[in-house]
Amino acid sequence: MIWRCRDLTFDLSRRTLVMGVLNVTPDSFSDAGRFAAPEAAIERAHAMLAEGADLIDLGAESTRPGAVSVPAEEQIRRLEPVLEALAAAAPAACVSVDTRSAAVAARALERGARVVNDVSAMDDPAMAATVADAGAGVVLMHMRGTPATMQDDPRYDDVAREVAVFLRERMRIAMAAGVDEACVAIDPGIGFGKAVEHSLALLAHVPELAALGRPVVVGASRKSFLGRVLGGAPVEQRLEASLAAAAIAVLLGAGIVRVHDVGASVRAVRLADAVRAARREP
Ligand code: HH2
Q1: For the CA atoms of 199, 150, 54, 226, what is the dihedral angle to 10 degrees?
Q2: Given 44, 78, 100, 223, which residue is catalytic?
Q3: Considering only CA atoms, which residue is closest to atom 8 of ligand 1?
Q4: Do residues 57 and 86 touch, judged by C-beta distance below 8 A?
Q5: How far apart are CA 182 and CA 184, in angstroms?
Q6: pLDDT recorded at residue 27
């Protein structure tokens, strides 16, 4: 399976990609404010690349439950110095921009980003054309509602099936608007309008999403469902469960994991890759 992101083509049959999270926000659910200053963010990006990150997922708008949206101009103001520094690095880092705004995505693509990570799976009507024109990679993620309301008693009859139906439809819309299928990746949106049992079911049912024929992104790192499974562990005690979740996702067919702890995740994922490669086809 390949994933095309402008001038880069990733071969996911060889190994899982690790996407390092970098939030240049004052209010993300973990690392809040730590990388809001451009110098701190740029240093963090380089550290994650040195630890083996394949992509840096740069976000200027928190999407934690209850978060309110950040105007496009403010997102761009937060992103630009970091994008410029990463584009100038040698070799240039592969940056994905975590935004729901086509205006923000367009500016980030001008500044060298190669992927748009859209947690709304293209609710902005201008997003598909923006991605298509740049030949950028895109992550289409499932979310129920908006960050402001998504955790208000989410209900599903069959969460894995409903998420797969939604993602198949958003893939169809993206491709109808000119996005190349080879550029598309899909994400079940763990924790986005999901109760604990929904996030667990989505992890367990990664094979059904992989069956849609595009790389599956899983972002379980440090999320609250892990804390709940561990009997209330706070965010700083979720590393081992995050690594376990990444390894499980890879073994079940995920192609990309979105993580905060890059070095540890790379080591966990390499083992999962090796076990996956050792499996005899049934
Ligand atoms: N999770 C978060 C943000 N963006 N994108 C994708 N594709 N998949 C995810 O699971 C995902 C995502 C939430 O995590 P984080 O960025 O750490 O927090 P915040 O949204 O508060 O900035």
Answers
A1: -40
A2: 223
A3: 219
A4: no
A5: 6
A6: 80
